[in-house]
Amino acid sequence: MTSNLDNFGARLKDLRLRAKLTQQQLGNIVHVSKVSISGYERGERSPDTETLRNLANYFEVSVDYLLNGDNGYSKQRNDSFDLAAKEKDKIETIAAHIDDDVTDEQMDDILNYIDFIKHKHSKKD
């Protein structure tokens, strides 16, 4: 009997859901479209090397874990997923204070800027 985490797409979806991210949010973080994330999760697309590295770095797992399910997932990461959910709540709070006339493109820019600032400050630590 095989596990539902026996393939890349299932592992990616599991990590994304544990982090309480939408496909759009994860796509913004790793600089690909929602359609790409959906395709990866369904096994219809494969990420390029840079995207694979970005996914592994974001989820703090090895590329080997993403591809093969081997030795990359840390149980301690569950605490980080709780923090990710809190960060998502902050983003939603910010978005709630933005006027209704903000376009989808402007909203994507705002979310990308927030992500840029978070990563900029995390590299200083």
Q: Beta-strand percentage?
A: under 5%
Query: What's the rounded overall pLDDT mean?
Result: 80
Topology as a string of helices (H) and strands (E):
HHHHHHH
Going by helix content, strand content and strand pairing, the class is mainly alpha
Q: Could you give the count of β-strands?
A: 0
Brief sketch in words of this structure:
It is built from seven helices and no strands. It is mainly α and 125 residues long.
Structural key phrases:
mainly alpha; 125 residues; 7 helices
Question: What can you tell me about this protein's structure?
Answer:
By secondary structure, the chain is mainly alpha-helical. The protein contains seven helices and no strands. It has helices at 8-18, 23-30, 34-42, 49-59, 63-68, 77-96, 104-124. The longest helix has 21 residues, at 104-124. The chain is globular, with a radius of gyration of 15 Å.
